[in-house]
């Protein structure tokens, strides 16, 4: 086996799972996610130079470009998650569904920067490289995305009519938002 192939196999082994997870969160079909991931590594193989191997941000940016229109077609998932959130669940699974619904309600750019930071573990410098902006802009986007997610996860406002009010102690556990779930 030549050195180029061995170096590429090491790159593939190190980053394949991360790229696949990145794509899986962005398309509804698992098989399509695998195909897009392999397309990403095919491009990397064609352009691969063992003296300057690609880093994860470049691979994620390539995957992002490949996802393209598929990235924006997540309405089906949003509808399914909303229906899933309506099904009574235990406190544990309800919080995760609520977070996932909130994530899908975010703008695509906000969701992406949060996923890159929290799920993929990229630094602000790496996020900036992956999405094609400066590090300061990546930090600002992350800050705005956090604020938007926080606003979505806040407990709903109380109704104005006194007859509609339900005292907090009479509410079912786990149905007051993620914040109350964490405090219960």
Automatic annotation (TrEMBL):
Annotated RNA polymerase sigma factor 70 region 4 type domain residues: 97-149
Question: InterPro entries from the xrefs?
Answer: RNA_pol_sigma-70-like (IPR039425), RNA_pol_sigma-70_dom (IPR014284), RNA_pol_sigma70_r2 (IPR007627), RNA_pol_sigma70_r4_t2 (IPR013249), RNA_pol_sigma_r2 (IPR013325), RNA_pol_sigma_r3/r4-like (IPR013324), WH-like_DNA-bd_sf (IPR036388)
Q: Where in this chain does the record put each RNA polymerase sigma-70 region domain?
A: 11-75
Q: Which Pfam families does the entry mention?
A: Sigma70_r2 (PF04542), Sigma70_r4_2 (PF08281)
**Keywords from the UniProt entry:** Sigma factor, Transcription, Transcription regulation
What are the boundaries of the region Disordered? Answer: 154-184
Keyword Transcription regulation among UniProt keywords: yes
Note the coiled coil stretches, chain numbering. none
Tell me the Gene3D superfamilies matching this sequence: 1.10.1740.10, Winged helix-like DNA-binding domain superfamily/Winged helix DNA-binding domain (1.10.10.10)
Q: Which family does it belong to?
A: Belongs to the sigma-70 factor family. ECF subfamily.
Q: What's the protein name?
A: Sigma-70 family RNA polymerase sigma factor
Organism, per UniProt? Microbacterium helvum
């Amino acid at each position: 086996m030549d050195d180029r192939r061995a170096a590429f196999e090491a790159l593939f082994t190190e980053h394949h799972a991360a790229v696949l997870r990145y794509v899986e969160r962005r398309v509804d079909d698992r098989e399509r996610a695998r195909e897009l991931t392999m397309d990403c590594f095919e491009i990397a193989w064609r352009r691969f130079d063992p003296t300057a191997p690609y880093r994860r941000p470049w691979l994620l940016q390539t995957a992002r470009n490949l996802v393209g229109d598929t990235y924006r077609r997540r309405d089906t998932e949003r509808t399914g998650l909303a229906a899933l959130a309506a099904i009574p669940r235990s406190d544990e699974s309800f919080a995760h569904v609520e977070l996932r619904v909130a994530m899908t309600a975010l703008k695509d750019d906000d969701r992406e920067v949060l996923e890159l930071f929290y799920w993929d573990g990229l630094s602000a410098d790496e996020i900036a490289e992956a999405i094609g902006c400066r590090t300061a802009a990546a930090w600002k986007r992350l800050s705005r995305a956090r604020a938007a997610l926080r606003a979505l996860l806040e407990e709903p406002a109380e109704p104005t009519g006194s007859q509609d009010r339900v005292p907090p102690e009479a509410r079912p556990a786990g149905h007051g938002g993620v914040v109350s779930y964490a405090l219960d």
